[in-house]
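Format notes (please read before filing issues)

Several people have asked whether sequences and structure tokens are stored in separate files. They are not. Every record keeps both together, in the order shown below: the sequence lines, then the token lines. Line labels are part of the format and must not be stripped during preprocessing.
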Amino acid sequence: MEPEELASQLRRPTGEGGIEIGNVMNELNGCMSSFVYNHMNVSENDQILEIEFGNGKLIPEILNKATNVSYTDIDLSDDMVREATVFIRCL
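Then the structure lines:
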């Protein structure tokens, strides 16, 4: 992937290349996300807003921290929103 295309996909993943980028970002950011989630002290009935959540494959980790957690997410990429929605529905 050319640098310009890579930069565009990192900013707003789209299509098959965007799905691939989302999976790579999960691998690269997984440890960092886990570290943050573990230090958030999520408690029962908390409300969480996550911005740029990607394909959603890390969302269960934060939802499993406590019961009755309200989770809202925002992402600029319609393809990542679709991927996350499909993934979460399959859980």
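For reference, the curators noted about this record: The beta strands are 47-51, 70-74. Helices lie at 3-11, 15-38, 59-63, 78-89.
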